[in-house]
Each structure stands twice: as structure tokens, then as C-alpha cells.
Amino acid sequence: MEQAGKTAFVTGGSRGIGRGIAERLARTGYDVAFTYNTKLDEAVSLHQAITAMGRRCFYYQASMEQPDTAERVTAQAIADLGRLEVMVCCAGLTVHSNVRKLSAEDIDFAYRLDYRSYMLCARSAARHMIERQLAGSIVMITSTRGTRAYPEDPLYGGMKSALNRACESLALELAPYGIRVNAVAPGATAIRGGYTPEELRASAFARQIPLGRLGTPAEVAGLVAYLVSDEAAYMTGTVTRMDGGLILSGIPAGGGESEPQWHALPARLR
């Protein structure tokens, strides 16, 4: 699945699923640009890993919830890479939100980061691809929480659901230009890399997943690499779950401490 000489921009690329995607695309021949939020050391280490593969790499500090960041940083990535053929929107943050305590600031933050930034990056990428007549690919990382409802999840889950639906409309609009738009909806994913199979199966929550373990960033990255490749040239407007069967089994939203639920897991496990 070699893609020699191609280019990709990954938001939220310095850690977790985004990092897995950036590394995988670099290994398949892409020059990569990515954003990070606060952890410069993570960005530097990823830059070193990608350049060691012989690929060009650029990284930018970007608070994607800020008003002009998405458009500005996408334009910078296009300028540095020279062109943009793959746009992967991954930057995001889980927000738990009890409606009785919900603030207007919480709503605005979730909207700006988890929806608005995706749409503006997609818009900038699509305009560039159309202008340059590039048969590009846009991938949005959403969540199975956009499909199944959990308590205290009207914001993050709601924004992911909106992205799943937006992906379908974008796919219809951009298909005449040869631009494909797809979404990947991970389930419970061990964000930190380097887990052993035993560790992926160790938590009480993992035992409730039909496949009996958490997913990994590398697995999500493999799906993204396929979706942007020529092998998936007939796929657009899809929302592909990658959750080990998580939402098939109807795991109850409640439960005591002995039965932890995904919506309540620490961020490192999402």
C-alpha cells in the first residue's frame, strides 16, 4: 500500500490515535504535517520518528478551539507540504457534562473543538484539493459515542454524532471532484502506545467488550491508511466502527464500581 510522494495533515497528531495515524501514514510513504496542543516533547519525538523514516515532517502548536486556528494551521500545512492530498481531523477532547451543571462555556468549547475545527479544516482542505484538481481524501475521527447514547454525554457524543452525519453530506458534495470523505468511529482505545496483549485485556471494562480487550492507536491507524489508499477508492460517506463489538452487546450505561462504563473511563483509555 505504498503511497510514494503523497502528503497528509493530521490534527491532534502528537499523541494517541492521531500519533498512530501520523506514524502509519509516514511508513506508507506520506510526508506529514501535524498539530499538537501542549506537549512539545511529544511533538518533537514524533517529528524525529517520521524524519528517521526519510519523510518530510512539520508540526505546529495549535489550540484548535480558537476562532482562526483551524484555517490558519491548515493553510500553513499546505504551504509547507506543497500540496495536501489527505486531511485527517483527529484533535478533540472528551467533555463530561451533567446537564444540571452545564455552562455556556462548556457548550461553546465542545462545539469549537470537536465540531467546528473539523469542518473548517475540511473546508480548507477541500478548497485546496478542488483548486489543484487533487483526488484527495478527508477522514474524520469520531466515536461510537456518536452512535450510542450515554449519560452525561450530550456534548462530546453529540458533536461526534453531528460529524458522522456531516461526513455523509460532505461526501455527496465533494464526490464530483473525486474527493472522498469518510469517518472512523473508534470505541474504547488504549491511547498510550506500547500495551501488551495482557494489559489490553486486564481492565474490568475490557472484559465487557465482546472481543475482550481495548483497541490500539495502531489498529485505528491501519483503517485510516486503508481508507485513504487507492484500495478504498470506491468508499465515501462511510462511518466505520472499530470498537471490538462494544456497542453491539448493549453494555448498560449504569453499573457499580465493579462494572466500569466506557463513558466514565479515564481519558487515557478513550
Question: Can you walk through the features of this model?
Answer:
The protein is of the alpha/beta class and 270 residues long. The protein has a single domain, classed as Rossmann fold (3-Layer(aba) Sandwich), CATH 3.40.50.720. It is 37% helix and 14% strand. It is built from seven helices and seven strands, in the order βαβαβαβαβαβααβ. The chain has a seven-stranded parallel beta sheet, sandwiched between helices. Helix 1 (16-27) links the parallel strand 1 (6-10) and strand 2. Helix 1 packs across helix 7 (217-227), helix 3 (69-81) packs parallel to helix 4 (104-132) and helix 4 (104-132) runs parallel beside helix 5 (156-174). The chain is globular. The model has no long low-confidence stretch (mean pLDDT 90).
Categorize the overall geometry.
Answer: globular
Distance from N terminus to C terminus (CA atoms, Å) equals 28 Å
CATH fold-level name: Rossmann fold
Biggest sheet architecture: 7 strands, parallel
